[in-house]
Write a structure and sequence with these properties.
The complex is a heterodimer of chains A (837) and B (255). Chain A has 20 helices and 39 strands. With 837 residues, chain A is α+β, with helices and mostly antiparallel strands. Among the domains of chain A are: 7-188 and 220-332, D-Amino Acid Oxidase, Chain A, domain 2 (2-Layer Sandwich), CATH 3.30.9; 503-587, Alpha-Beta Plaits, CATH 3.30.70; 731-836, Aminomethyltransferase beta-barrel domains (Elongation Factor Tu (Ef-tu), domain 3), CATH 2.40.30.110. In chain A, α1 runs parallel beside α5 and α2 (63-79) packs across α9. Chain A is globular, with a radius of gyration of 28 Å. Chain B is of the alpha/beta class and 255 residues long. Chain B has a single domain, classed as Rossmann fold, CATH 3.40.50.620. Chain B is 28% helix and 26% strand. Chain B has six helices and twelve strands. Classes of the chains: A alpha+beta (837), B alpha/beta (255). Chain A binds chain B through residues 1, 229, 279-282, 284-287, 293-295, 297-298, 301, 304-305, 307-308, 315-323, and chain B through 12-18, 29-33, 69, 72-73, 189-197, 200, 233, 236.
């Protein structure tokens, strides 16, 4: 073996599928002087790659995860380690049949082959199925099995051969040294090594490694039980690893997959079994490997019966022996997504964790591009480690969330479904008041936010006939007609809305103007008191964020961004601060509580408790001032996300409760009610075609495409400017449009309401793809009660982006007619924005 | 034919054994629990004999409540019923175990008639005392052979083979007899899915037992001093060949 180097550009810890993929892509992108180490031997160092079942179902309800999976499939195929065998998801219940129909819609949205099949067709694909047990199945012809260990070797070797990479198995990391906030050195069992970059790709061990440097990777190892049964007589003639489709018995939360002459039976049905990273045995102490822990039969016993019931001939015989059984360790995270990116705590220390076989090569490419170019081709915001706020970074938080998530792995999860664990961790000063009003809390960035108030139930009577009631249980789940009533009350008189989940940063310093100019697309050198809504771009011109920037002094700006994006945005801003300290960022998110007041009566109401002039001349739209409201000093920002005149009122957190009381009292004579985020985030904004980051906006779309480009381009340089200029001149591939549903009636006569993510199709039901290969799908869906319409937003290529264009949207395998209402950002409701003046 | 097989729950250790803090037990926090390979062969033998000859095969263990899992595993493979001599006291010595088992066998035989065969593993994989089988045989005054490699039943006689350095020893024993079985006598089956499900419904009799004050005491385990096993890497690929030849010559494997 080569001498262990004392220096490297980048050390990659972990030689599983993820580490190998990263070294492959880093070297392909031109990085040299890479060192890969692993505590275990090669080619199987003993992590989760070594015991994975290695099958890949490409479909996921999430766009980005599907894109990464498709990229991984492509790479596995290129490496020659992929065998397409097809796969089926089975439904034993009606609810699951519906879920499979939803899977078909997602598959269509992301471009994956999928089709609903009858039980007899399912049986013809896998002849040993107990046909009468199922109501139907979803058939995915492109499901595949890969050899992930071989793939790892094939990815590692070219990097070694081109002298870009040195590999050291059986090398343990003992400690890490950080200097001035940056990773400096690793102590290993072979000696010390200095590195500019370190990537932790250690799967279930990642949190333990991160801790050596004082960083956190929110991940917890959990047990996934699997048995290997054989010999299976039916597979005797089989000459390859797999010839029959993989079965996912979704209702039993299990899978069955041929493995040569045997069949693997895996389960996500057992109790959640957490295994702290510190308790994982060493390689020497392990009977099999550190991630193949002893099987606990009692946890698996009910699943044995489910499996035998489904495949009685195959599994029910005396000779179907359980030849191997493990409690395999897998990586789980609090939100079920991988953890990628530079750690918040230590510069140069990157996480590539919680990545499964199906994502390995794609995630490796994403991380390598991100490290080398600062951006990745596939949007990474949902995977970015900096999405985790400090409250979500403790081990116990991971434990409670992942324990709750475990049995949902094959579950039917509603897009708005709320967590039960990890609640009430962040509450505003209004929380108790809201509880008294019967607020139904949804969580955002850890904050408890009222989604609607049961106290507004009397409004249902008042607005009867305009509430767009939902007959279907799925459509109505996590929803209430009270939201629409609150919306109509907002439009009629006004409403108060708790906005304390905003993330707010103060940016200050002598070079602040240059800095803010560099960060934002819009002109930032504005008058003091001016508020500017702007997008932030990444280096390739994709959207990094959209937020409001307010100049509060000659050398100070306030940034207000969405709770969901706050921690990620904070890292983006922090990363770009000048190194000379001439600009500083302070996080005010927890220091400020915010209430929005909007509606036709908002001004009069506020004026009744405020001595300042609130008229248009004294306090114009898109500006901020200090106001005295009753006895309180309040920082007021005249802006709106709901399309009504009004203000965001910001006070120190300790004054929040007092502000609530004043406003609630003052609002009464003006008919101003409290309203929830159901209005602010969906009905109010969708009537106004306002965009939401993570729904309409992400780095795979440009400001031109979502119609947030400015009329002119500012002179100052900013991140992504070059790409932005190019995009402005180029032919637009797709434009964000607002569509309305023309007929909601399903085949069984129910009125159905899409919730988002559905494929948008041509009038004759064909999929729509733009010239960049992106499919049209519903980015956001919501009622527009003032219009009496259900509105969908979607990017459409030029040939379809035309007002009046008739299209279709597919929902639970039925197609509904829709019409393009507006192309671009013109609102459907109050298109001239007269109500905001 | 009525057969009793005695098994013992032991930790399924890897290459390196971790001891509990007081040194009196193997730390099995992250280890599976199993039985000795010898005992697996005894269980297999009993299942095969009962299948061929009819009768019933009972599996017995002495241990903590969790030992039930090992009984269930044997039941899943095809044993008919189980007996758990329950104690929460660890580290019984061979005499104490043998006494408890003997007492139980006597009671069981009074109620249900004699076992034709009582099988043990030749020694447990954790302690390796190789005592209990012989002690039980002696206490019951039955013929016994230890460490057997082959067993056939011909009427009322057990035909036994035992391999030794000098050759194969052949024995003929009148039943009832007590035998301890050596690993390799057969190829033990794995439990089937069906057997595993059915095992849940098979009867297990629980009997509380206490150690008496016979035999030798046990203080604690002490690990042997770690031997330094320094692997020397001579190189990789064809370039290493010359060095390998040198080493082989040094070991006098090549001239």
């Amino acid at each position: 073996m080569e001498k262990f180097p004392s220096k490297a550009k980048c050390v990659i810890i972990g030689a599983g599928i993820v580490g190998n993929s990263i070294v492959y892509h880093l070297s392909k992108l031109g990085w040299k002087d890479l060192v890969m180490i692993d505590t275990g031997p090669l080619p199987n160092p003993g992590g989760s790659t070594g015991h994975a079942s290695n099958f890949i179902f490409p479909v996921d309800h999430g766009k980005v995860m599907t894109e990464i999976t498709l990229d991984s499939l492509r790479q596995y195929k290129e490496l020659g380690v992929l065998r397409e065998c097809g796969g089926m998801e089975l439904a034993r219940t009606e609810a699951r049949m519906d879920e499979l129909k939803r899977r078909v819609a997602s598959a269509k949205s992301w471009g994956i082959e999928a089709e609903m099949v009858t039980p007899s067709r399912a049986k013809s694909l896998f002849p040993w199925l107990q046909e009468d047990l199922i109501l139907g199945a979803c058939w995915f012809p492109t499901v595949a099995v890969v050899d992930s260990l071989r793939a790892g070797t094939l990815m590692r070797e070219p990097a070694q051969q081109s002298d870009a990479l040195k590999v050291f198995p059986n090398t343990e990391v003992l400690d890490m040294t950080v200097a001035a906030g940056r990773i400096k050195l690793l102590k290993t069992s072979r000696g010390d090594i200095e590195a500019d970059y370190v990537v932790i790709a250690c799967g279930v061990w990642s949190p333990k490694l991160a801790r050596m440097a004082g960083a956190t990777i929110p991940l917890i190892p959990m047990v996934h039980q699997m048995i290997d049964v054989g010999p299976i007589t039916a597979f005797e003639a089989t000459e390859t690893e797999i010839e029959y489709p993989i079965i996912r018995d979704m209702c039993a939360l299990m899978y069955e997959r041929q493995a040569g002459r045997n069949i693997e039976v895996g389960s996500y049905a057992h109790r959640p079994i957490v295994h702290r990273p510190d308790d994982i045995p060493s390689i020497e102490e392990s009977k099999l490997s550190p991630t193949e822990l002893p099987f606990t039969l009692a946890d698996f016993e009910p699943q044995l019966e489910d499996a035998m019931e489904l495949l009685p001939e195959m599994l029910g015989g005396d000779d179907s022996e359980i030849q191997y059984s493990i409690n395999g360790l897998i990586s789980m995270t609090p939100d079920g997504m991988p953890v990628l990116g530079e750690t918040e705590e230590v510069k140069g220390l990157w996480s590539a964790s919680a990545i499964w076989i199906k994502e390995g090569p794609g995630a490796g490419r994403m991380l390598a591009e991100w490290m080398v170019n600062g951006v990745s081709e596939i949007d990474n915001h949902e995977l970015d480690i900096s999405r985790f706020y400090p409250y979500a970074r403790t081990e116990n938080y991971s434990i409670v969330r992942c324990s709750e998530a475990f049995n949902k792995m094959y579950g039917i999860v509603h897009p708005a479904e709320q967590w039960e664990s990890g609640r009430n961790m962040r509450t505003t000063p209004f929380y108790e008041k809201q509880k008294d009003l019967g607020a139904v809390f949804f969580q955002a960035a850890g904050w408890e936010r009222p989604h609607w108030y049961e106290s507004n139930k009397p409004l249902l009577e008042k607005y009867e006939g305009q509430l767009m009631p939902r007959e279907n249980e799925w459509d109505a789940r996590w929803w209430s007609p009270i939201i629409n009533a609150e919306h109509l009350a907002l439009r009629e008189s006004g409403a108060l809305c708790d906005l304390s989940a905003f993330a707010q940063f103060e940016i200050k310093g002598t070079n602040v103007v240059d800095y803010v100019q560099k960060m934002a697309l819009a002109e930032m050198d504005v008058d003091i008191g001016k508020a500017v809504y702007t997008t932030l771009l990444d280096q390739k011109g994709g959207m990094k964020s959209d937020l409001t920037v307010i100049r509060t002094a000659h050398d100070t700006f306030r940034i207000i961004t969405g709770g969901a994006d706050g921690n990620r945005d904070k890292k983006w801003f922090t990363d770009h601060l000048p190194s000379d300290g001439t600009v500083q960022l302070a996080d005010l998110s927890s220091a400020v509580s915010t209430i929005g007041i909007w509606g036709p009566n908002a001004r009069n109401c506020l004026q009744s408790i405020c001595s300042g002039d609130l008229g248009n001349d004294a306090f114009p739209f898109a500006s901020a001032q200090m106001l005295d409201i009753a006895e309180l000093p309040v920082w007021a920002l005249r802006i709106s996300y709901v399309g009504e005149m009004g203000w965001e009122l910001h006070v120190p957190t300790e004054c929040g409760r007092y502000l609530w009381d004043i406003l609630a009292e003052a609002g009464k004579p003006f008919g101003i009610i409290p309203c929830g985020i159901g209005v602010y985030g969906t009905t109010g904004r969708i009537e106004k075609s306002y965009r939401l980051y993570g729904a309409e906006l992400d780095s795979s779309f440009s400001p031109v495409e979502c119609d947030l480009a400015r009329r002119s381009v500012k002179e100052a340089d900013f991140i992504g400017k070059e790409a932005y200029l190019f995009e402005r001149e180029a032919e637009t591939a797709a434009t964000l449009c607002s569509l309305t549903v023309d007929d909601h009636r399903s085949r069984n006569g129910q009125q159905r309401y899409m919730l988002g993510g559905e494929p948008v199709l041509t009038a004759d039901g064909k999929e729509i793809k733009d010239r960049k290969g992106r499919r049209s799908y519903v980015t956001s869906a919501g009622n527009a009660p003032s219009l009496g319409k259900h509105v969908l937003m979607a990017y459409l290529p030029p040939e379809y982006a035309e007002a009046g264009q008739q299209l279709k949207v597919e929902y639970f395998c039925e197609q509904y007619p829709v019409t393009v209402g507006v192309v671009g950002s013109t609102p459907l409701f109050d298109p001239k924005n007269e109500r905001m003046r | 034919m009525n057969i009793l097989v005695c098994i013992k729950q032991i930790p399924d250790v890897g290459g390196k054994i971790k001891l509990s803090e007081d040194g009196r037990d193997i730390d099995s926090t992250n280890l599976g629990l199993t039985i000795s390979p010898h005992e697996e062969c005894a269980v297999e033998q009993a299942i095969q004999l009962v299948k061929a000859e009819g009768g019933s095969a009972t599996v017995l263990t002495l241990g903590i409540a969790d030992s039930e899992n090992q009984l269930r595993d044997s039941l899943a493979r095809g044993m008919n019923k189980g007996v758990l001599l329950h104690t929460e006291i660890s580290n019984w010595n061979a005499n104490q175990i043998a006494h408890a088992i003997t007492d139980t066998i006597k009671k069981m035989e009074t109620d249900n008639g004699s076992f034709d065969l009582i099988l043990f593993g030749s020694e447990s994989a954790d302690r390796g005392n190789a005592q209990v089988g012989i002690l039980v045989a002696h206490a019951l005054d039955r013929p016994s052979v230890n460490g057997i490699n082959g067993l056939e039943i011909a009427g009322n006689i057990a035909l036994i083979k035992r391999d030794s350095d000098e050759g194969t020893e052949n024995y003929e024993l009148d039943l009832p007899a007590v035998l301890s079985v050596k690993d390799g006598m057969n190829l033990p089956r794995f439990p089937s899915l069906k057997g595993t499900v059915m095992a849940k419904k098979k009867p297990i009799q629980f009997i509380e037992v206490q150690p008496d004050d016979t035999g030798i005491g046990f203080l604690k385990f002490e690990p042997t001093p770690e031997q330094s096993k320094q692997a020397v890497i001579l190189g990789t690929g064809p370039e290493a060949a010359a060095d390998v030849v040198q080493v082989l010559k040094k070991l006098e494997l090549l001239r």
